[in-house]
Design brief:
Layout (H helix, E strand, L loop, with lengths): L2 H10 L8 H12 L6 H7 L11 H11 L7 E5 L6 H7 L3 E5 L17 H11 L4 E3 L3 H4 L6 E7 L10 H11 E14 L19 H8 L2 E4 L13 H6 L12 E9 L2
Parallel strand pairs: 1-2, 1-4, 2-3, 4-5
Antiparallel strand pairs: 5-7, 6-7
């Protein structure tokens, strides 16, 4: 783990909430007395304590942060941000952040079991002193103006989208980005699914054709190893498995994260 990634995670309490002894003890004490969902508990835990996470986010979040080359005033869209803490970190850096996420009707968001809605977002913005805007729709339904966004960021969300919807998503990403804008993506690679096995889907998603998505955007791949991105001609599934010891893997499930950056000329 690069030292700057470790420092970033320590600063923001990513990906599971602040892990300092006082924060852990305080959250446990508040939970015991029935205040585990209180404003105080959220303040103590920080922006990453609200929603459960995979350990692979230990790498994904700081990687995406540094590769996004953020500056105050940038217009940033996070796709599928749900109630994860990354959007609030982006806002605290002075970016204008829009979380475009249609949500799920039957799902509250894990650790604090609170719903993704305007009231929750207003509460979290108040607690974290941020101003993230929630748009409860798909990117196409959001009807953003063409060439209006500086960054589109998505952290391990795209593998949950139906393959039939990905071409339209790609076109929309390419449309809304300004020239010179970046699309920063991490996409789960499940080692128990095709092309590594004959299974198509697991409870967490499916492996997608990353090249098809990139082609649909019309953007240039400026960072990402084609030999490790599914769908590219150079992709080598056997090579990925041979070198598995070099990759950061999920603790509880055979998954790695594909990381790529696209740029609009």
């Amino acid at each position: 783990m690069p030292e700057d990634f470790v420092a970033w995670n320590d600063r923001w309490g990513a990906p599971f909430g602040r892990n300092f002894w006082w924060a852990r003890d305080a959250r446990k004490a508040l939970t015991r007395v029935g205040l585990g969902q209180s404003d105080l508990a959220i303040r103590v835990g920080g922006p990453f304590c609200v929603q459960g996470n995979s350990n692979t986010r230990e790498v994904e979040y700081p990687w995406a942060y540094f590769e996004s080359r953020l500056e105050p005033g940038l217009e940033v869209v996070e796709l599928g941000g749900a109630l994860a803490g990354f959007q609030f970190v982006l806002s605290k850096q002075g970016c204008h952040v829009m979380n475009v996420d249609p949500g799920e009707e039957d799902q509250a968001y894990w650790e604090l079991a609170i719903r993704l809605d305007d009231d929750t977002m207003a509460r979290l913005n108040r607690l974290f002193r941020t101003d993230v805007v929630l748009v409860g729709s798909t990117l196409a339904q959001a009807r953003l103006a063409s060439n209006s966004v500086d960054r589109v960021i998505s952290i391990s969300t795209i593998e949950h989208i139906l393959p039939s919807h990905l071409p339209d998503l790609g076109k929309e990403i390419g449309r809304v980005l300004r020239p010179g804008g970046l699309c920063v993506l991490t996409i789960d690679m499940f080692l128990d699914l095709q092309p590594f096995t004959d299974k198509l889907e697991n409870p967490y998603g499916r492996n997608i054709d990353v090249r098809a998505l990139v082609d649909a955007t019309g953007l240039e791949l400026v960072m990402g190893d084609r030999s490790e991105l599914l769908g590219f001609d150079d992709c080598d599934p056997n090579g990925i498995l041979r070198n598995l010891g070099e990759f950061y893997m999920g603790y509880g499930y055979p998954v790695c994260a594909q990381a790529l950056v696209l740029a609009k000329p």
